[in-house]
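help with these tokens:
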Amino acid sequence: MRRNRMRELSMEVLVGTFMFVALLSLCVFTIVLSRENVFQKAYPFEVVFADVMGLRDGDNVVMRGMTVGKVKTMILQDDGVRVVAALQRPIHLKKDYSIDIVFSSVLGGRYMQISEGNPALEGLAPGTAVKGQTPKDVMALVSAVAADLKDITGKINSGQGTIGKLVNEDVLYNDARASLANLNEITDKINHGEGTLGLLVNDESLYVEVKQMINDIRATVDEIRETSPIVTFSSIFFGAF
């Protein structure tokens, strides 16, 4: 009987030890997976928002592009929502500070972004209530843009505006095609050396002659300007010829 009792006690101790080790391992894995250091000192930080737009407990707190803490809890109160966060370091807000709730993506997800402000400015007095910016509703902005696009498309389809007339009126469309065809024809003539502009573009000798003539006129004008400082533009121009 005594041996059986000792064997039962040994088995209970072994099972208890196993369960303790399993629970301890679970706690360690939970801390590692959550990326939280329970031994690191946390600095509480509170801010009041008029609307948190779906911010949740556990969302990141970001400053200068780095995660510096997490949202711990949110409390609904008369003047808005008080957000309590735990930060990895103390922060010192200046008078031009800004705290926003930022959307991680259109599909969802948010984080709280802190901008301490200009270091050269005076800091907030101790005990000053910190206020966050009212977040912008991304879905409302998307809906507004979609409504504007729908309105523009409707105007085009009804022939309003230049684009609407170009799309719906055959006369304006044909005129535009004719103008484009004329432009292509002029470009082809220039490329083939037709006309004065075509000769200037394609005939190198003519280009050199025109350039030399311009240089001669400029030299004559400079010479007249040196000999007669007070003259009119017309006298200089005709004197060059």
